[in-house]
Amino acid sequence: MKITLSLKIPPVLVTLSVALLMWLVSLLTTPMLFLAGIRMLLVGLCLILGVAVATAGVLIFKNVQTTVNPLRPQNTTCLVKTGVYQFTRNPMYLGLFFMLLGWGCYLANGYALVMSLVFVLYMNHFQIVPEERCLSALFGDEYEAYKQSVRRWL
Q1: Which of the four pLDDT bands, split at 50, 70 and 90, describes residue 1?
Q2: What's the pTM value of the predicted model, to 2 decimals?
């Protein structure tokens, strides 16, 4: 059976699904011992960083008038290499990952934190690799050079 999830499920839905799985795992396992102040500081930092990075990615795309629809990378009109895209090729997904890390810290559960890696694995396989194939077809050597100079996540 061939899995055909590539570019089918919106990343926000993937994020919410993983967040739900993290919550369920936290209900079934023992929480970590965290000092409340440190835990909430980590939650806040992760959430603020996640929202800031994801928003920066969206705003740059909107500014150059290219698609922010992750299910239709073929509609991309230009290759963005400025702003946050100088540091990560996928700031919107990186931002969602930081938010999941914040959720895992809030749940105070090591297993839930590890579950956030499910998001990275899923996104790499079913979202980012298909996007990269499309962007390589659209922008050729320019995109290949960009991939060599900027990391996928961080």
Answers
A1: very low
A2: 0.94
